[in-house]
């Protein structure tokens, strides 16, 4: 059994065949999938979508690109939808310092407001980070008191030193398709040193399809491909990867009736 801890199942690339994809994913052993919002609208859509499927859960949040949406009114709305029984995390939230993004100040404010929201809602966080690792870790360390419900850095591709700082904050590290890429030797070395007790699996589908399926649309049924690659990196069986990453995800997100 696997858990796909981060996906975008409401993406329009899935609109024609999502039922088939979910069935196929279950056949591949992916029993639970967390589908993620990235702004208010997509978070509402994700909840609606998850209501139709017993094995789909949701994370709701405003992602850096939409940081301008984090008005008091929208944060109140986010707080109320976060109470839905399908919502298991706040995310994806974080920082991205690439061209065309809202200012650092606007992003930081939206991020910290949502850390506060996660704290109040007693939910873990799913963190997005791009070109902002130093500042992201600084914000998390300064707001350590707000992340006591844990969380994970999604699509991790940083250094071991950054992974250590996340782990010291009680956060997990999520492993996606990037770890399978031929040019990911650094990341593979870093993952080989991170304890399996801190790792979880994700696809971030429809993006970041793992090797050797690159070029195709990504989907949750590629989780075993990512797991197999991680088993190679960790020099353990795929069964051990499945068991431990599932255990980590059930514990963090309190899903599947397991309230560890
Ligand atoms: Ni994502």
Binned, the helix content reads 40-55%
**Can you list the strand order of the major beta sheet?**
1-2-3-4-5-6-7-8
CATH architecture: Alpha-Beta Barrel
Enumerate the distinct ligands: nickel (II) ion
Global structural class? alpha/beta
The overall strand count is: 8
- Indicate the mean pLDDT: 96
The CATH C-level name is: Alpha Beta
Largest sheet: 8 strands, parallel
Looking at CATH, the homologous superfamily is Metal-dependent hydrolases
At the third CATH level, what is the topology name?
TIM Barrel
- Uncertain residue segments: none
Strand content: 15-25%
Order of helices and strands: EHEHEHEHEHEHEHEHH
What does this protein look like?
The structure is a single chain. The protein is an alpha/beta fold. It has one domain (2-253): TIM Barrel. Helix content is 40%, strand content 17%. It is built from nine helices and eight strands. Helix 2 runs parallel beside helix 3 (72-81) and helix 8 (223-234) packs across helix 9. The longest helix is centred in the middle third of the chain and has 18 residues, at 104-121. The radius of gyration is 17 Å and the shape is globular. The mean pLDDT is 96. It binds nickel (II) ion. Nickel (II) ion binds at residues 6, 8, 36, 92, 204.
Using brief descriptors, characterize the structure shown.
8 strands; eight-stranded parallel β-sheet; 260 residues; alpha/beta; TIM Barrel; binds nickel (II) ion
């Amino acid at each position: 059994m696997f858990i796909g801890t981060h996906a975008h199942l409401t993406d329009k690339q899935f609109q024609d065949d999502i039922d088939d994809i979910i069935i196929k994913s279950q056949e591949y052993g992916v029993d639970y999938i967390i589908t993620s919002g990235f702004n208010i609208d997509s978070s509402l859509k994700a909840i609606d979508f998850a209501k139709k499927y017993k094995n789909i859960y949701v994370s709701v949040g405003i992602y850096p690109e939409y940081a301008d949406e984090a008005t008091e009114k929208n944060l109140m709305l986010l707080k109320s939808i976060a109470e839905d029984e399908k919502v298991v995390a706040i995310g994806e939230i974080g920082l991205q310092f690439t061209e065309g993004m809202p200012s650092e100040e606007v992003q930081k404010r939206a991020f910290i407001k949502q850390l506060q929201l996660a704290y109040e809602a007693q939910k873990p966080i799913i963190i997005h980070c791009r070109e902002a690792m130093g500042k992201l870790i600084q914000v998390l360390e300064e707001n350590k008191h707000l992340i006591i419900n844990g969380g994970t850095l999604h699509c991790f591709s940083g250094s071991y030193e950054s992974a250590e700082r996340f782990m010291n904050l009680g956060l997990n590290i999520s492993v996606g398709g990037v770890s399978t890429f031929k040019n990911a030797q650094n990341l593979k070395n870093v993952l080989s040193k991170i304890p399996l007790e801190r790792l979880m699996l994700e696809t971030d589908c429809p993006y970041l399809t793992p090797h050797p399926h690159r070029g195709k649309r990504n989907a949750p049924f590629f989780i075993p491909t990512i797991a197999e690659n991680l088993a190679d990196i960790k020099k353990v069986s795929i069964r051990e990867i499945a068991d431990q990453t599932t255990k980590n995800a059930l514990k963090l997100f309190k899903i599947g009736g397991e309230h560890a």
